[in-house]
Amino acid sequence: MPLVGFGVFQISDLDETQQVVELAIKNGYRLIDTASSYGNEEAVGRAIQESGVDRKQLFITTKAFVNEMGYRQTVQAFYQSLDKLKLDYIDLYLIHMPFGDYYGSYQAIIDLYKAGKIRAIGVSNFDEAKLIDLVKNVEIVPHVNQIEHHPHFQRPELLKFMAENKIQPEAWAPFAEGMNGMFTEPVLTEIAQAHEKSVAQVILRWNIQQGIIVIPKSTHENRIQENFSVFDFELTQDEMTRINQLDLKKPSMLDVNDPAEVERVYHYLENPVVTTLK
Q: What residues contact residue 155 under an 8 Å CB cut-off, 6+ apart?
């Protein structure tokens, strides 16, 4: 699984989605992350077909949303995603949210994994309690947990549990969409200047050096290129420590334990374009 991928959340226009995914693949990205709830799997599939890159070199992730929970519903959702993406298998299939009958759904993806339709399975947005409970009750521990993770929300306890159980962390929204002054943090700005890099590149590098996969999104080719150019420098231990001190210890994007947020998740499909839900 590549360390740097390309996310397509909140790119609702299908032509634009296809164009930016083609740009991402052209610029070296091999991990593409989408979801049924994003409404753009077909465009991602077209981009894959048009890229000319061998399918075996690509790592494609998609997810089942809350309206697709339950064994039968997730199997149906999986095959719908497979058809939209025009693929024979999915590299990583995730339970998108820790709500509804995700136990039935997780058993479905275990069976699809055993059948060779999925190469790796996992979950998304599972906090410590939900993840511990799942791990203690399933045959195959999730290979990946895709979580909100950025300098303002660092989640050391969750990462420790995941490391102990060999669950790969993957950071969605690694910049927290610039919330809470992320791009103007003095510490990040100073470190970026020292390396002649952008704040975004420093954040991505900080994640990578912790072994955390990142899936930044952009619709601009220069930033698509910039976000991939993070392997030619290294943060010092002192710089890593200084960034670690920026932790606000609370989510900026999604709190799965807030009743209002849970309600928002269930209403997401009614108006997916205007929400910041990931």
A: 147, 149
> Rounded to whole angstroms, how far apart are CA atoms 181 and 123?
29
- Structure confidence by residue, pLDDT tens digits, 146-183: 999 999 999 999 999 999 999 999 999 999 999 999 99
Annotated catalytic sites, by residue?
38
Half-sphere exposure of 80 (CA within 13 A, CB side): 15
- Number of Cβ within 10 Å of residue 157's Cβ equals 10
CA distance 96 to 112: 16
Q: Residue 189 burial (CB < 10 Å; 0-12/13-18/19+)?
A: middle
SS3 251: coil
Going along the chain from its start, the domains and CATH numbers come out as 5-270 (3.20.20.100)
Per-residue pLDDT reduced to its tens digit, 14-46: 999 999 999 999 999 999 999 999 999 999 999
Residue 200 CA to residue 226 CA, distance in Å, equals: 8
Contact 17, 5 (CB under 8 A): no
pTM of the model: 0.94
**Interior angle at CA 232, CA 227 and CA 236, nearest 5:** 100
What is the rounded distance in angstroms from the CA atom of residue 143 to the CA atom of residue 154? Answer: 20
Q: What is the pLDDT of residues 90-132, one digit of tens each?
A: 999 999 999 999 999 999 999 999 999 999 999 999 999 999 9
Contacts of 71 (CB under 8 A, 6+ apart): 101, 104, 105, 107, 108
Q: Kind and range of the H or E element at 39?
A: none
